[in-house]
Every structure is written in C-alpha cells, then in structure tokens.
Hints:
By secondary structure, this protein is α/β, with parallel strands linked by helices.
Amino acid sequence: MKAVEPRDIVTVDVEEWFHGHNYLEHAPPSTWDGLEQRVERGTARVLDLLDRHRVTATFFVLGWTADRHPDVVREIARRGHELGCHSYAHPEVFRLAPDAFRADTERALAALAKAGCERPAGYRAPSFSITPPVHRYLRILQDLGFSYDSSLFPIRHPRYGQPASPRRPFLLDGDGASLLELPMPTWRLPGLNVPFSGGGYMRLLPWPAYRFIRARARAQGQPCILYVHPWELDDYRPQVGLSATSSVRSQGGQDSMPRKLQKLLAQGRFETMGDYAARLRAAGGLPAATLTPDGWRPA
Length: 299
Ligand SMILES: [Zn+2]
C-alpha cells in the first residue's frame, strides 16, 4: 500500500443524549419520545464551530433522529458536510440477528432518504458494536451499497473492544469493489492499542495528554478520526439516576469539550471520511483482510 499522508477528520454521531448505551437502563426506547430532545441545539453548536474554522466534517445520523428532525439533516447538507448512517434505533449490533440488523439499516436508509440524503457512502455502528461475533454483518453493509465502514475500534473495552482487529484501513475479503473498513485510530504500545480520538476519551484526557497521544499515533501513520456527539457540546445535564461510573463516562469533562474541540479545529488539516476513503482507494494497493472470530487473516 502506498503511503497516504494522515490528516484529521471530525465525525459527529447525530443522536439524542438518551441514545447513549449508558442511559439504556434509565431511558429505555419506549420512553424516548417523551424525553427532552436536544439534538437541534447540539448540532447547531457543532456546525457553528466547524464553520468558524472552515472545517468540513462527516455526520453519521441516526434514522430515528432523521425521522423526527429532518431539518437537522438538511442543515448539515446545506452547510456542505458529508452525511453517513448511524443505524435507525441505535442498537448494539452484536445483540441483533442478521435479519434484524439488515432491517434496522434499511429503515435508517429510508429515513435518511426521506430527509434528503439519498445514498450515504459510510456507516458507523452505535458504540462500534460490529464486534468479532458479528463481523460477517459487514457483508450486509456491502450488499446495501455502503462503500466504507467506521465501526471497528481495535482496543480493549468491555462493550465494543476488539483488540485483535486490524488497526489500518483494509478492503473486506479482498474484492476490489468491496467495503473499505476504516478502523478508529489508536496509538500502538507493546501489547496495547491506546484509544484517544473519541468523545469520552477527549473529554476525560487532559489536553496535553490528548495532544501527546495524538502526535504519537500520527507518527505511526494514523489519521486523527475524532468522534463527538451533539450532546457533548450541550450544557444540558440530564439527571436520570446514572451510576457514578456511567455518569463519568457520559458527562465527565463535558465542560471542557467546546474548548478542546476549538483547539483541535484551529490546528489540524481536515478532510471528510468520504474524502479519506477516496484518497486511499485512489492510491491503490490497499491490503485485503478476512475477519475471523479471533482476529483476521490476509484475504
Ligand atoms: Zn451513537
């Protein structure tokens, strides 16, 4: 594979605060329509920040949200950003049978199309939940016409970890027309992949530590694919009885987020996920991998 210079990418998972899996016990799906919806406000804040720094980003939108707030989808497109798919009902994909995963994804595509986004190129699973037991579902995404996926996070994590998965982009099963997988970036230490680029990691790491890890990962050729949620830029703090641990995961460091994001936006050189995928395909020579239950092998 030819060297493709790593850049920075901002991705936004467009969903409500109660879609976070830490809230599931306290705010089950049957209650969602009665809860305070904040996505318009949070997304507007993200869009204004991006505008201020002239950064174009990728927004993975939840079908549930697109159905209820199509204006949010249209506004993202109007401001020139890329739209992607973040499922319909925010399931943990590893809990779904294949037919249920396909049905959720088709429903999401229909909701996005209704809001004006006809053909998203990219998919990101809720909580990166396309884990080894359901890696074969990536073929369903390919069948449904996606050209890239951003659902693998090769780290240790109690819910979505998969430390043995590839750290670098690869083509699924080696077919030239196949899905391009863009794993979330990590800093490789002996025996350990260190995450840094997500909302929670960025919120909770002090800025100097975040900057250090990002620079080390960049030196290893990793792009900085940041992911944030509209609710992380919001000042709303729902009191729904989260445990102390869940509270730190979901709300910790939220006050620092706008400041950190502004610093990052002022420093980086940015592109969208779709542009990154296109650069990789144009450079050619992408490795091909077949995922196995305990890791992967070259295809
Ligand atoms: Zn999500």
